[in-house]
Amino acid sequence: MRSIWSGAMKFGTIFIPIRLYAASENLHIGFHLVHKTDCGRVRYKKVCAKDGEELKPEDIVRAIDIAGECIQFTEDEIKNLRPFTTRTMEILGFCESYEIPLVALGKPYYIGTESPKKGGVAQGFQMLKKAMQDSDKVAVVRWVARSNEYMGMLTSYEQGFLLKQILYHEQIRSVEEIEIIEAEVDPEVLEKGMQVVEKMAINFDWTRYREKYTQELRELIEKKALGEEIIPEIKPPETRSLEKELEKMLAMVDENEDRAHAG
Length: 263
What we know:
alpha+beta, extended
């Protein structure tokens, strides 16, 4: 697996060489944008908004507009802003995992040793891993990558560590921004809803679940390639009576249970 970042884990005055790896991959199918008449690929060009000139990579720099003035920066200037920080993942402290809000947790990453072949590298890595396991704590870390500063939750996982990005508090939108219509729920309807919830309780095993949409999309592509007609998806029906639907669901669950016991 190819690493996406390398540096050192800063644990107080101890520096542990590490590598960061993406723990997930994209399962989705990527469609191309093409010209409708001749199926030619659509290409995007980098063009100056002022003079319309197409730009080469060496003609482009980063900039910020301040009070109407364009302040330009070279890549070296940005890298040299905090050269030490960009190569260090600093442990800010340790806490219980439940103290970090679920809404703040983002993409997962694996962390491994910088070079397994170098002697002495693994000792600090394993010391930190075992100390966190024994204390049942997670670490809050901070690092810089691609000109952005990130925060994350580090936890012992399998042979190494699992890192999950923590979004900053100001990145999370308030739930008050969304519309939620209040309504009184009939006690009998609520009771039936609770019965359905109890009957649909499962022992969750995430290894049993597969992403189905991509497979269905592949089948759709194959049908299209064979010249078959694509039938539009039917919209879900509108629920008119909660109580009747819950009774129907209870009957279906009971029927499935009977079949399972009979089998």
